Write a sequence for this structure.
């Protein structure tokens, strides 16, 4: 009966192709997840595609898979994909669909955290700065303007996500709604209900939607809501049973879930590099898994805050460029003892994939690169300000200038003779976040948010005052995430309010990538400066990748001997902020993908305070080893209070 046999084969094929019944559910009787009907427990790790160059996504995901993880957890930062209203970017390093497909191809399930708010030590917690166009907007609430923007964004994002849901044959098993909402002041249940309805309308009724909050009943009170499965987060070294008891208060039955088990911790400029012992992490992980609980290790790899993407905490403390996090995989994807310690624990509970682990990527020390001064920011202002100057009686914020990141130059004149030192001050602490002050081209001081609100100036009435304001990263956690940048209140000279401003919105990234700063000779001679400060200026240098050496280019690190603070670009790519005078981070990770073997590699530095070029070697240096833990002096009480308030390690 050949025809009958063929018919059976066709029917089987059709059934397997189109009738596959993929399901992922919560079992409230057996207190577990079920995947395709079978009891399932995930052991996951956090990875942020937005902090890793696309060329390295596969390497990092493979290392996670080979550690024994069966899932990854990931955020989607709204502001990374919609930097301007209705201008969406999902290509290159922002190719979300490619990342999801890659995870599935490798064999990893996905726990998705699409926001709209994510925190993640990311600028403004992932919310786009343009939301602040409505000055009194209440973020993460039922504010109609905020809801309208969220609805529009999710209307773009969630239809992209739906094909990747597990029940549709994709890798996504659960989707988080909002993030740690119980830690936010608003406690707006209508907002959570709206988001729940919104997610269901696009993703359907089958997908498991969840929330995450600190492992305390007080956080779960405002963070959990009916229809969303409540999970908790907590770090190593504590009482695991007590932490899960908090989850049981909100979810008497269902799987135990730690959505953020901290493998390390975040850093701040001027504080010590955070380190959590591998043995402590391994011990608590073992306790979690012994309870049959599900766990996500946050972070499994941290990565890098390239460009201006780092966030900040309150009282204002910006995070550095590195997001290494003391994670099992380093910022550069290197294997660590913590990686293998975690792998050994996981091996006790389920089978580890066979085969070799992808090795640590090689690093190359390209050595010192001689730099030369290009121009001061003041010299280059006409080149840098694509939109031209804006005249205003009083200072305007970044948002009012339609600028999200980087630097703005504010210019006015001394309103009176200052023959003796006269305070130029921000009495309402309105410098957000750091301002470099010069008078007639001479650097006179730095104003810094929450730290320095006045500097003394001298000069004649009518002298030119330039104030270059740097956005150091928006607050990403707590009630102050509506973080305006620039001069957000008036400055005074003595007792007089300064008026008559000319304001330049600076497009530095565009000018650097187009090589405009290298084409123009300096427009003025160096003016004698105070011993410890110089006007912000650009420096440039280039280097060739050695020929005759196989497998180059390779990853490297750049460091800044005797430089103070600034921003650095290589071949037009914004690596991020350096600040060795404050620490703890001393080197910036340079991925090989931005280097060239076919042409000279151009290094552009914007030094804000003082370059070493007058008194010593004017060089930056490429090395093969990172330095993230230089000793710094600082008050650690602020960070300890932040940790204690949030029940973190």
């Amino acid at each position: 009966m050949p025809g009958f046999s063929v018919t059976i084969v066709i029917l089987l094929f059709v059934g397997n192709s189109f009738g596959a019944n993929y399901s992922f559910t919560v079992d409230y009787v057996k207190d577990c997840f079920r995947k395709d009907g079978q009891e399932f427990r995930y052991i996951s790790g956090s990875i942020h595609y937005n902090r890793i160059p696309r060329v390295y996504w596969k390497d990092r995901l493979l290392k996670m898979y080979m550690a024994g993880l069966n899932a990854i957890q990931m955020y989607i930062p709204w502001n990374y994909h919609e930097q301007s209203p209705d201008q969406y970017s999902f290509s290159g390093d922002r190719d979300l669909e490619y990342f999801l497909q890659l995870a599935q191809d490798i064999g990893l399930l996905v726990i998705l955290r699409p926001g709209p708010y994510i925190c993640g030590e990311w600028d403004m917690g992932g919310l786009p700065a343009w939301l602040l166009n409505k000055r009194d907007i209440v973020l993460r609430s039922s504010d109609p303007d905020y809801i309208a923007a969220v609805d529009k964004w999710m209307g773009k994002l969630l239809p992209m996500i739906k094909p990747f849901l597990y029940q549709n044959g994709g890798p996504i098993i659960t989707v988080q709604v909002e993030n740690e909402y119980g830690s936010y002041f608003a406690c707006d249940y209508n907002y959570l209900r709206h988001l729940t309805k919104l997610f269901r309308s696009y993703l359907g009724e089958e997908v498991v939607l969840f929330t995450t909050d600190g492992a305390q009943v007080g956080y779960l009170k405002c963070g959990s809501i009916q229809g969303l499965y409540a999970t908790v987060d907590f770090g190593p070294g504590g009482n695991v049973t007590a932490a899960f008891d908090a989850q049981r208060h909100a979810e008497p039955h269902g799987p135990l879930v730690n959505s953020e088990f901290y493998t390390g911790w975040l850093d701040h400029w001027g504080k010590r590099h955070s380190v959590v012992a591998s043995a402590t992490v391994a011990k608590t992980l073992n306790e979690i898994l012994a309870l049959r609980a599900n766990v996500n290790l946050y972070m499994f790899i941290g990565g890098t805050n390239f460009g201006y993407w780092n966030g900040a905490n309150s009282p204002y403390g910006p995070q550095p460029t590195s997001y290494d996090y003391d994670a099992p995989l380093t910022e550069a994807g290197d294997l660590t003892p913590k990686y293998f310690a975690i792998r050994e624990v996981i091996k006790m509970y389920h089978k580890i994939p066979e085969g070799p682990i992808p090795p640590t990527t090689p690093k190359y020390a390209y050595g010192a690169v001689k730099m030369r001064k290009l121009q001061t920011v003041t010299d280059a202002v006409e080149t840098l300000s694509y939109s031209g100057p804006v005249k205003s009686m009083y200072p305007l914020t970044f948002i009012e200038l339609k600028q999200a990141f980087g630097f703005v130059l504010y210019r006015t004149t001394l309103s009176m003779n200052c023959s003796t030192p006269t305070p130029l001050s921000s009495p309402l602490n309105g410098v957000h976040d750091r301002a470099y002050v010069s008078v007639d081209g001479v650097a006179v001081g730095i104003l810094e948010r929450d730290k320095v609100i006045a500097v003394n100036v001298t000069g004649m009435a009518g002298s030119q005052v330039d104030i270059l304001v740097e956005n150091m990263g928006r607050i990403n956690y707590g009630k102050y995430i509506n973080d305006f940048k620039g001069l957000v209140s008036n400055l005074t000279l003595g007792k007089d309010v300064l008026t008559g401003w000319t304001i330049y919105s600076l497009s530095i990234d565009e000018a650097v990538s187009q090589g405009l700063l290298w084409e123009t000779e300096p427009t003025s001679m160096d003016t004698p400066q105070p011993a410890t400060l110089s006007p912000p200026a650009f420096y440039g240098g280039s280097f060739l990748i050695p020929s005759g050496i196989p497998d180059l280019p390779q990853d490297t690190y750049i460091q800044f001997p005797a430089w103070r603070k600034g921003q650095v670009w290589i071949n037009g790519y914004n690596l991020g902020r350096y600040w060795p005078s404050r620490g703890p981070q001393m080197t910036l990770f340079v991925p090989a993908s931005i280097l060239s073997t076919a042409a000279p590699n151009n290094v552009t530095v914007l030094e804000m305070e003082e370059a070493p070029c007058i008194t010593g070697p004017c060089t930056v240096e490429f090395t093969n080893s990172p330095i993230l833990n230089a000793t710094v002096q600082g008050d650690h009480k602020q960070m300890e209070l932040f940790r204690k308030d949030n029940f973190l390690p």
Notes: The CA atoms of residues 261 and 297 lie 5 Å apart. Residues 144-161 form the longest helix (18 residues).
